[in-house]
Amino acid sequence: MTLLYPLFMWFLVPLAILWYTRTNKLIDSVHLIILILLTLALSRPALERQALKGEIKARDIIIALDVSYSMRAEDIYPDRYTYAKKTIDQLLVNNHTDNIMLIAFSSNPLLLSPPTTDHALISLAMKSLNRDNILTRGTSLQKLFEKIATLPMQDKTLLLLTDGGDKEDLPILQKILLENNINIIVLALGTRSGAMIQKEDGSMLKNSTGDLVISRINPQLEILAKQSGGHYIIAPSTSEVAAQTLQTEIDAMTIAQHSISKLQQRHTELYQIPLTLALLLFLILHTRASRYLLLLTALWGSQTHASILDLYTLHQAYAAYQSGDYNASERSLNKIQTPSLQSQIAKANTYYKQGRYEKATLAYRSIRSRSPRIKQMVYYNLGNCYAQTKAYDKAIKYYSKALQLGGDEASRYNLKLVALKKSEAANSLNFARPQSQEDQGSKSPDQMENEEESAQDQQSSGSSGGGGGSNKTKSESKKKLLYSSKEETKQEQPLSSRVYDLINKGYIHEKAPW
Question: Are 56 and 117 in contact (CB under 8 A)?
């Protein structure tokens, strides 16, 4: 057995003190026992189960974080570097599936985290980076781009978080970006008026002639982004808004996806046991417990894997969805820390309603279930997504899969429409919009729980929507295997001195650090 949130166990320390100072032995003891049980429930006890190998569709994204000395400037609150780190953390929370690489750079680039979907490892690598050990004051975008050009990726999407640093040869930078298919999104950290840089001793940084150093945003960044076909974003007021803006730009880009096989650790949560015992003791002590036996029985039989807060957030998302406020529904779903089957379906339906069919396709294909009814719903909605994007062959494939799992009039009707559109592609016939499957894809969490008890495991099946038989050659469908190691994220390990040596390489001979 393990605890998913062991930090809550620290609450037992004050409870132990109260235990020895209690006055009324019986009533106080029962109250303290209730608090202890609630603390155990908050720590989320769980039984570890065998890891499940699942296949997901992911995009390769490179995040480059400027760690040069000029990032200490405080023209962005609290300072440029802290703002950038918070933005990356929030972006990792909003993005659950993409394959992300993290690079720190100043005068020299350094790989902090290889491409991985285990975003907790990326956060850990970023937190372990101590900027006090970074001595370089210059910023070399050319060396960064040359490093990225050597990465074994066909299409490279680069999120560049920097203040621009040194003035460099724009044609050379543009040539590297264009020749190596590097799609760039720049988050400009700084202001045109600039700010002074405070040193560790509290004094302001000066140059070799004794003048105060004013670090301003490099105007070349905007020119570079626009001339290379990228996007330029001025840092918003908060890191949360910056992360959402970056995610929107990523979603708007056409980025190739590839299959990734990932081992996902599964748990059977046991928080219901201490929570139920705490409620039972409270009801016995203060009420007539017989009135609540039915409620306690329902709580005991619940097998949901989401926390109480996640379940409440999911209900908010459903309410917003039913009212037609799909943006509010998406915001609520993004707050869920532990995605469940219900939240995955709700998020996929929300993307579909927003007209973001490619993202809806990705969400539907990530759903895993052993239930034929859930599979049929996923196949049907995948058919709708492909029909909306005019990928008629794939739409026919998934409508057919849905019909193989049972009779479905909506799938049969849409299949005829898609087949007609494909056969009469040369004509100017209007393509009827596929019917929506609200009755299958937008049910409440309670309905989903009653109908999908065995689907809580979210185990991959050979006929599930995420697989999709492929006729490509082995070289074209080569998959990466990424292991989400729990042991690696337990303890934060500081970066070795060798890492900082690589970052600081050549800082003594920097030609134009400002």
Answer: yes
pLDDT at 309 over 50: yes
DSSP per residue, 287-302: S-GGGGHHHHHHHHH-
The CA distance from 387 to 476, in Å, is 25
Rounded distance between C-alpha atoms, residue 383 and residue 397, angstroms? 7
Look at 280 and 176; give whichever has higher pLDDT. 176
Question: Do 58 and 148 form a contact (C-beta atoms < 8 A)?
Answer: no
Q: Classify 158 as helix, strand or coil.
A: strand
Domains along the chain with CATH numbers: 1-43+272-306 (no CATH), 53-260+487-509 (3.40.50.410)
Contact 138, 166 (CB under 8 A): yes
Alpha-carbon span 41 to 35, nearest angstrom:
10
CA–CA distance, 469 with 461 (Å, rounded to integer): 12
3-state secondary structure 218-278: CCHHHHHHHHCCCEEEECCCCHHHHHHHHHHHHHHCCCCEEEEEEEEEEEEECCHHHHHHH
pLDDT score recorded for residue 61: 93
Percent of the chain residues topping a pLDDT of 90: 24
User: For residues 243 and 94, is the Cβ–Cβ distance under 8 A?
Assistant: yes
Q: Which residue has the higher pLDDT, 449 or 505?
A: 505
AA letter at 205: L
Look-up of token digits 């993307």: 351
> Model confidence over 15-38: pLDDT tens digits?
888 888 877 777 888 888 989 999
Entry pTM: 0.50
Residue type, 188: A
Q: How many other C-beta atoms lie within 10 A of the C-beta of residue 47?
A: 11
Q: What is the pLDDT of residue 461?
A: 37
